[in-house]
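Handout, tutorial session.
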Amino acid sequence: MTGTVASENAWLLPSALTAEPGRAGRQPRRTTRDWIVDSLCFLIAFGFVILVSWDLHQRDQPSPLGTIPEWVLTLDGWISVALCGVLWVRRRWPVQLALAALPLSLISTPSGMVVLILLFTVVLHRPLRVAGPVIGLHLLAALVFCWLRPDPSMSMLVAMVLTVAIMISIVLWAMVVRARRQLVVSLRDRAHRAEAEQQLRIAQARHLERTRIAREMHDVLAHRISLLSLHAGALEFRPDAAPGEVARAAGVIRDNAHLALQDLREVIGVLREEGAGEGPERPQPTLADLAVLAEESRRAGMRVSVRERVDHAEAVPTGVGRSAYRIVQEGLTNARKHAVGAAVTVTVAGGPGTGLSVEVSNRWPVGQPPAQRIPGTGTGLVGLAERTSLAGGRLEHGRTDTGDFRLAAWLPWSA
């Protein structure tokens, strides 16, 4: 195992499931489960060695080469006991230890349990292309063992069939355990990926929401601040205006300043709170609010005419109506900034199935621009293009052949 696998669930992910044979890497600490499993394997193998060695000493052991001497049986037992010790490190070198134990598979009976545990570890911790040849060599050695050390209680054919059945059972068991562990690892990896993707979706949703809020605030604040600038400019250039006009202009400035501050306060509150959206949102403008928007501009001194030829205007979808309102609002704001005093024509037409067309046009300014122009960010039309694209429509803007500046958009309106 590598260091990254050693975690609270490390027992579900042995090193062979992520590393190829011979891969160098620092071994992690043995877990409690590893200690329990290794101790149990050692006790089973050690007990098997003791019982089989005692049984072999109680009866003669014939072979094709003659009766096996007593000292050979004793040496076999001691070697098998020593072999039990390798079970503590079998996870680190499973293939090497299995190959080192191959000669004992030819002649030793007490070491049979240790060999089976080593083969189980090889199949569990290494891919089949590596474990297959090792299993084949041990199977061949086991058949040779059945000929060299025949069991007097059964025929050689039965002994061979039983040996093959035991080894196949061990291999299949190890393959089942390996497949289960791989499934657990795969499910855990999917769970981690799903959690990461969920966090990414949440972050993207927050980013999109904040972008939407920023776009809305640009449209709203640019409109109101341009009205403030226009009225303030009128007061500056008409210091001799009648007191009633001055008071009316000051009232408009005050009202728009309060509305701008309210909008700014709301967006700052939303951006500061992670749980934005818990309370109801302020009603968004729709197509029915175009008259109010045009009246605000007229009170600021603009010449605005609105032409509406919309069939079933009361059935305009909310999103389409809001987008149309923002397009007209940005067009009026740009006219105040760049075409002071020019007449502005707003045309809205369409119906279900044909879509909604919105057009804002004004004469191209003549002469030098005013010395004190209303500042802007230059991103208003970019935001409108993005808004229109997200709604499935299209946006055009630029100078026409007749010398007008035209801002036109088409928004889909299904029947």
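The second record follows below. Compare its token runs with those of the first.
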Amino acid sequence: MSDPLAHAEFSAQVTLQDTAAIVMSGELQVLATPRLIAWMERTAVEACKGLLEKGQTTVGGDIAMQHIAPSTIGRMVRVIAKVIEQNGKKLYIELSAWDDAGSIASASHTRYIVESQRFMEKARTR
């Protein structure tokens, strides 16, 4: 595979507030899938920033994630986002996440470049 167009990394330590029991996506005190998706999107947003012009941002289109291993409270989680392709305003991103025990998730994500002001105007009138 060729080098990514852009990339970013994010790390966080799993806290009680990040667990499935607290975010109500399950009953256990392990990293919640919705929180991991949020961390992945946060990292994707950062990766895309260098591809934008003034007044632009990105919005999420879809994400397909496989959460393959649990992370308990106290573990450090590292997320890497790689923008692998751009087709006009559409950005394709590969994401991966690990904790200190190994791989915990992977995802493919699509984001769209939008003009921030115009997007918000449309959002308010829909």
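Points raised in discussion: Strands lie at 6-13, 56-67, 76-87, 90-99, 102-115.
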